[in-house]
Task: inverse folding
């Protein structure tokens, strides 16, 4: 059940010389710890906030839309590449505005899901004094190859309006239908996913060198918790597990879980997170 003080709104930012909207969902409860939530590809701030808010009481959660997702502005100019550096610059502007507008304290925890780990790695040095601890949930950026089915789907099928529309009937089995119904037209959803995918990997699932960032995370001096699903088929090699072990980071493997965790099992995830950041 979401907190009664939970709200969603649009935040205006100046990004690449344009007036851009960013969807923000936050909890206005008494602050103990600020936690910034970064959703994965194809999701949105509301869905990720809803998933994470149930069992983390008395903390101020703040979820933001990645560019083109949810209520955020969709940019389709030629220069809008949606690659790792481009999205890192977007995240930097968003964080600056969250702090400036007192939506987020200048010291905060961060939870990044899947593809969100990549731009986070790019801007770490600029914000390491702001980050308390980092939690990566089934993160991209460590595996050089991803699952072929997802790669093909996101690179090829999403380019077709008709195929994207047909796939929307399958997607809600994995995440709420409102992600598509309330926030994105199927046409725009497919175009956005396709742009992110093209920037990151080929149709065979080979990640581009700009999207393999283990070397950047290796230089981080913050505590990092890795959370992964035992049956992650988007990153079946789960190289991020080996990275966590080799670099003495904490890791939690949720048995029988895939890349996106079932809602009924989120209590397991919440307990792991609360222990890591010190919530009793």
Result:
């Amino acid at each position: 059940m979401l907190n009664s003080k939970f709200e969603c709104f649009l935040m205006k930012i100046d990004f690449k010389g344009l007036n851009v909207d960013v969807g923000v969902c936050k909890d206005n409860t008494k602050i103990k710890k600020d936690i910034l939530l970064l959703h994965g590809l194809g999701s949105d701030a509301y869905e990720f906030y809803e998933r994470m808010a149930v069992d983390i009481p008395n903390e101020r959660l703040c979820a933001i839309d990645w560019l083109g997702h949810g209520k955020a502005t969709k940019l389709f100019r030629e220069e809008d590449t949606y690659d790792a550096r481009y999205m890192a610059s977007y995240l930097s502007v968003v964080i600056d505005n969250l702090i400036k507008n007192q939506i987020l304290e200048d010291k905060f925890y961060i939870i990044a899901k899947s593809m969100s780990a990549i731009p986070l790695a790019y801007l770490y040095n600029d914000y390491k004094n702001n980050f308390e601890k980092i939690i990566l949930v089934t993160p991209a950026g460590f595996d050089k190859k991803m699952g072929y089915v997802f790669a093909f789907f996101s690179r090829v099928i999403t380019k077709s309006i008709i195929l994207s529309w047909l796939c929307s009937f399958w997607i809600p089995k994995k995440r709420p239908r409102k992600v598509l119904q309330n926030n994105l037209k199927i046409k725009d959803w497919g175009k956005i996913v396709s742009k992110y995918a093209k920037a990151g990997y080929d149709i065979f699932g080979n990640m581009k060198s700009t999207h393999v960032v283990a070397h950047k995370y290796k230089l981080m001096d913050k505590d990092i918790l890795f959370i992964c699903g035992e049956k992650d088929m988007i990153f079946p090699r789960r190289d991020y597990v080996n990275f966590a072990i080799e670099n003495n980071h904490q890791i939690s493997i949720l048995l029988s879980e895939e890349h996106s965790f079932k809602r009924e099992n989120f209590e397991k995830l919440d307990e792991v997170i609360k222990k890591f950041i010190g919530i009793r």
